[in-house]
Amino acid sequence: MFKGSITALITPMTDAGAVDEPAYARFIDWQITQGTSAIVPVGTTGESPTLSHTEHRRAVEIAVQAAARRVPVIAGAGSNSTAEAIDLVRHARQVGADAVMVVTPYYNKPSQEGLFRHYTAVADAAELPLIIYNIPSRSVIDMTPETMGRLAAHPNIVGVKDATANLARPLHTRRACGADFIQLSGEDHTVLSFLAAGGAGCISVTANVAPRLCADMHAAWAENRIAEAMAIQDRLVPLHDAMFCEASPGPAKFGASLLGFTTPYVRLPLAPITPAAQDRVRDAMAALGLLG
């Protein structure tokens, strides 16, 4: 159910900074027609830290409505408050999301036992498949494979978005959690290496602007057309670099603005990307033929 090229959706906004609901629905429809296999609204790339709770919930509702059961919707539902995460998970279930993605609690710096208890409490309330989002670069803490192995025994905890960029990690996670535990990369540059280590797909930032290429790469890999997958990977590297040349999702939103789906607006404390970064994004997209 959760495999292949999965887009960590941007949240389109107007020049005044309001969520652009019609643009969001149109963007999701385009993602699906381009071959994206699942979508993740209101994760980090969706600027969840600066959305109000009302906006967060509405974004999940729009994603479910726009997807119209064509692809799974994995709703971002994380918080550094367990009670708040449970509330977001329950809302996602009520509006028809297919799964939830819950980030490791940031700022609080819980112990591994704290992580275990946090995810157990959220999963107990979920009644939906739950994907752990492990991203030490943003949340400071790193869930160990041993803790993840304990959590994998919970019937609602089905997988992980691994944004550690540690290519030994999926091997240890597989040993700790079993072959059926769904491992999704959270790092665009290392997707094929991650798949070779037992991964099932990637929750991608780059897929916001190059969904067809990302989907084609995953399809080639799944069909054992390895050389073709590697060739696409090589073509995508400059775009991956551009998508992370400044704080994400600034470059991705600027790229989506070049495609006519949104303005490049990002909410403070993020700032608009610099002219040099704009040139880098534009050049990388043009080199791939993404700008017509």
Describe the structure.
With 292 residues, the chain is of the alpha/beta class. The protein has one domain: Alpha-Beta Barrel (TIM Barrel), CATH 3.20.20.70. 47% of the residues lie in helices and 12% in strands. The protein is built from twelve helices and eight strands. Strand 7, helix 8 and strand 8 form a beta-alpha-beta unit.
In total, how many domains does the architecture comprise? 1
Report the total helices.
Answer: 12
CATH domain topology: TIM Barrel
| CATH architectural grouping | Alpha-Beta Barrel
CATH homologous superfamily caption = Aldolase class I
The CATH class turns out to be Alpha Beta
- Neighbour order of strands in the largest sheet: 2-1-8-7-6-5-4-3
Overall average residue pLDDT: 97
Radius of gyration: 18 Å
End-to-end gap: 33 Å
List the defining traits of the structure above.
alpha/beta; single chain; 47% helix; 8-stranded parallel sheet; 12 helices; TIM Barrel; 292 residues
In short:
Helices cover 47% and strands 12% of the residues.
Helix-strand blueprint:
Layout: E1 4-8, H1 21-33, E2 38-40, H2 53-67, E3 74-76, H3 82-95, E4 99-103, H4 112-126, E5 130-134, H5 136-139, H6 145-152, E6 157-162, H7 169-177, E7 182-185, H8 191-196, E8 201-204, H9 211-222, H10 226-243, H11 250-258, H12 275-287
Parallel strand pairs: 1-2, 1-8, 3-4, 4-5, 5-6, 6-7, 7-8
Helix pairs in contact: 1-2, 2-3, 3-4, 4-6, 6-7, 9-10, 10-12, 11-12
